[in-house]
Design brief:
Helices cover 45% and strands 29% of the residues. It is α+β, with helices and mostly antiparallel strands.
Length: 112
């Protein structure tokens, strides 16, 4: 009785093909993760919280544009209505295509 078996060359060829398919799959998966907006939104939200805290502690009421990783934050500060001690802080986050995808408005009381 003869047993059929595969040769070493056939086994290596099968492993190479599996490796190539796995590599292509990992590249596609990696690019899908890069296109996912959720991590960018999390980074943007953390950046906004940091900017709000910095504005409150340093009492820096100036307009500015802040560059982040994959996004830009536009900071706008103005007096709130007729109050001299209250400022309205508006933060808008833009992606690389300059499309707004997040914004926050907050009132800040000035200690001055």
């Amino acid at each position: 009785m003869k047993l059929k078996a595969s040769t070493i060359i056939e086994s290596i060829t099968a492993m190479v093909i599996i490796g190539i398919v796995f590599s292509i799959g990992m590249m596609v998966f990696g690019s899908m993760l890069d296109l996912n907006p959720a991590p960018q939104k999390i980074r943007a939200k953390l950046a906004l919280e940091e900017i709000i805290q910095e504005t409150k502690t340093q009492q820096s009421f100036v307009d500015e544009v802040i560059e982040g990783k994959g996004f830009t934050v536009s900071k706008s500060v103005k007096l709130y209505r007729d109050y001299k001690e209250v400022y309205e802080l508006t933060l808008k986050v833009y992606d690389l295509k300059e499309k707004e995808f997040m914004s926050v408005r907050e009132l800040i009381y000035s200690i001055e």
